[in-house]
Each structure stands twice: as C-alpha cells, then as structure tokens.
Write a structure and sequence with these properties.
The complex is a heterodimer of chains A (157) and B (250).
Chain A: H1 2-19, H2 33-44, H3 51-65, H4 71-85, H5 87-92, H6 95-119, H7 131-154
Helix pairs in contact in A: 1-2, 2-4, 3-4, 4-6, 6-7
Chain B: H1 2-6, H2 10-18, H3 22-42, H4 45-82, E1 93-97, E2 109-112, E3 125-127, E4 132-139, E5 144-148, E6 155-160, E7 166-172, E8 177-183, E9 194-197, E10 209-217, E11 225-231, E12 240-244
Antiparallel strand pairs in B: 1-12, 2-5, 3-4, 3-12, 4-5, 6-7, 6-9, 7-8, 8-11, 9-10, 10-11
The chains are: A mainly alpha (157), B alpha+beta (250).
Chain lengths: 157, 250
C-alpha cells in the first residue's frame, strides 16, 4: 500500500512537471518526465508498474494534452514492455550505460509519437523535437539517484 | 485511436473522461498565477501611479474612438436593416483567462478557465484583443479546450479587406502561420493585405481580423497560389481572451 502511494505520487509529480509552463526557449528541451519515471519503476518494481499502468498513465496524458486518445498510451506501453523484458539487465548497467539505454527508449517513444502525428498530419514543426531525448538522457543519472534514495526511504520493492 | 479520430460521438466520451483531470490543470497553473499575484503585490507605489496614468490616457483615447464607432455601428445597423440583412453586430460576450498549462510543442491548443457552467459551447469562437484565436472544441464544467487557428485541423473563412477576395485560412503546423487554401493564381492578393473573417462558415462572426499576408508565391508548377498569413492574434502570449456567443446560441 505504502509503496503504491509512493509510485502514484511520483507519477503525479511527473505529470505536473510535464505540464508546468516553461520559458519559450525551453519548449523543445522538456525531458520526457512521465516516461522516465515509468521506466524507473518498470525497472525497479516490475511487479507493480508494468504495461497496464503505463497504458493508463498514457491515457491520462492524452486527455491532458489533447492529443489523439491512445497515442501516448501506445508509446508508453511499447517502451515499458521492453523495459520490463530486460529490467534485470538494465539494473546491472553502470549509470552511463543506463543513460544511453534511456536515450534509445526515449527516441523509440518519440518515434512512435512522430509516426502517429504523421498519420494525422500534424508533425512537429522543427527537428529540435528530437532534442528532448538528449535532455532526458542527461537528466537520467540525477533522477536515478534521487529516485533510488526515495525508493529506499519508502521501501518500495 | 481510430475511433477518436473518426467517430463524432467520441467527443462526449472524451469530455467525460477528462472531467476528473480539470483540477489537475488548475493545480499546474497555480504557481504561475501565484507569482503573478506576488509580483503585482510588491510592485511599488510609483509604478502603480505611472501605470494608472498611462491606462487612463489609453482609456481616454479608446473612449474617443469608441464614440465614433458607436455612431458608425448604429448607422451600419440602420443600413443593414434597410437592406433587410439579418446579421447583427452585437452579441453576448465573456472574458476568460488561459490556464498556464504547457502541452507538447506540436499541440496547438489552450485551456480556458470557463466551461459549460458559464454557457461555453463546442464550436464557440474565441478572440483576443487583436484578432481571432480559435474555437472551443471540448467543454467541461470548469474548463474548456480551444483549438487555435494555426492548427492544421482548423479552418477559417476569410475575406480580403482591400477587395473582398474570399478564401479559407487553414493552420500550417510547420511554421505556426496560416495558409490560404485554393487561391487561384489570378487572385489579387498582395503582401500586407489584411484578412478578416467573412462569416460564411457560420462559425466565426463577420469582420474580426484573422491575419496579415506575409508572402505570396505563384509557382508555375503549382495549381494554386501559395499565400501565408501571420495571425493577428497573439496566439502564444495572450493571457485573457474573449468568448463570444453567436445570436443562435445566446
């Protein structure tokens, strides 16, 4: 129960960060907060956060963002599926290597979104779109350490 | 996803599902409005006096212009009545504020702090101080979602002020500008022409500024001329917008 609350609260904070207004020049730099938190929990607590949770959170993001319903849900589901598949291997990686895997995961996520946006004819206006995966990667070590402390403090998984 | 895109009744399902999420949007926009409040609270007395003076001057200016406008409007209505035209210029209006919520950069939508409780309806036109902003596409009790005119799914029926050439302005997601659809190459459109809503689409009322022509390209290989407009509304910096009711829905 305790651990579920922790997971839920971190996810809500991530959604909050994803919607928080930022200065104009940062719009393409916003890291994929929600996805990163989902990946972390799918890696560390795969019994609690898996594909189903990712799908639900994806629907919430779609409703908040006004994107096609199910778009983020699909992207989250696919990425989290791969993360749970190889979560033991990911846990063993050093931080640098983990960061690179995050880069690949976020790129996959952005690629899925890009495809769907392409199908409905609303592609992002600039190639800076892909920058968000780089900021996600750069942020990962800090997020990882922070979340690790949090996880130990609240004894999740 | 296909259902969401193709089936019209899905809009209501979507609105129902977003219902519990409205408080979250208010929560996210709270820090911004909080800082705004703090900023106005700690601004000095001198600043306020200066601002007050400049506002008063501006009000005087606007008043004087308004006097002229009232005369023109009454004359216009009189002439229209003479022509037995049914269109009325005035309608019910309401000022709404944008919630400070950021979306993914490829989403051209904003959230307003007024909803169906205030009588907002789907398809309602939204303006800001300088021009047309967009239309409401989803309403909840306390929030509503607005599709901006620079979204590729949005179309506005427009008319050139100078010579009355009619066209459709659709959004262009690559540049954030508007593009005129199906303009013949022989059409008389020049750079710096201003386009107003023509009121033909039955969505937007007649006569509000939409945009100014920034480029006209006539390629021999293309069937139609390529005309781009700069939206006159400040689509990404307005905080307060005007909701207007068409006479049918008032």
């Amino acid at each position: 129960m305790h651990s579920l609350m922790t997971i839920l609260i971190t996810l809500i904070i991530a959604i909050f960060l994803a919607l928080l207004p930022m200065p104009d020049w940062t719009i393409w730099l916003r890291p994929a907060w929600v996805l990163m938190i989902l990946i972390y929990w799918a890696m560390m607590a795969p019994s609690q956060v898996s594909v189903g949770v990712a799908w639900l959170i994806g629907l919430v993001i779609d409703l908040l963002n006004g994107t096609l319903l199910g778009e983020h849900a699909l992207a989250f589901t696919i990425v989290v599926y791969f993360v749970t598949k190889m979560h033991i291997r990911l846990r063993m990686y050093p931080l640098l290597q983990q960061g690179i895997s995050i880069l690949i995961f976020v790129l996959l996520y952005q690629f899925i979104l890009y495809c769907i946006q392409g199908f409905i004819g609303e592609l992002p206006g600039s190639h800076l779109y892909w920058l968000s995966s780089v900021t996600s990667m750069l942020l990962w070590p800090w997020l990882f350490v922070l979340m690790r402390d949090l996880r130990r403090r609240f004894k999740v998984a | 996803m296909v259902m969401d895109k193709r089936i019209e009744t899905f809009v209501t399902i979507r609105a129902a599902m977003s219902l519990p999420l409205a408080p979250l949007q208010y929560l996210v926009s709270w820090p911004t409005s909080f800082f705004d409040n703090v900023k106005s609270a700690i601004s000095t007395h001198d600043d306020l006096v200066n601002e007050n003076l400049s506002l008063k001057a501006e009000q005087l200016l606007l008043r004087s212009q308004l006097q002229r406008l009232i005369a023109i409007e009454s004359e216009n209505n009189y002439l229209k009545a003479l022509l037995q035209s049914s269109r009325q210029v005035k309608g019910k209006t309401l000022i709404a504020e944008l919630l400070a919520v950021d979306f993914e950069p490829f989403v051209n939508q904003v959230i307003l702090n007024k909803g169906s409780r205030d009588g907002v309806y789907v398809g309602q036109p939204v303006l800001d101080a300088t021009g047309v902003m967009g239309q409401v596409i989803q309403t909840g009790p306390i929030t509503s979602r607005v599709l901006l005119i620079n979204d590729p799914h949005s179309g506005v029926a427009v008319q050139d002020v100078r010579n009355g050439v009619r066209a459709m302005a659709v959004g262009d997601s690559y540049s954030g500008k508007l593009r005129l659809m199906y303009v013949p190459k022989t059409a008389d459109i020049k750079v710096n022409d201003i386009f107003l809503t023509s009121g033909l689409g039955d969505h937007y009322p007649e006569g509000y500024p939409v945009g100014k022509v920034i480029s006209v390209k006539k390629e021999p290989t293309q069937q139609f001329a390529e005309v781009y407009l700069q939206p006159s509304a400040h689509l990404d910096s307005s905080r307060q917008v005007l909701l207007i009711w068409s006479p049918r829905n008032a």
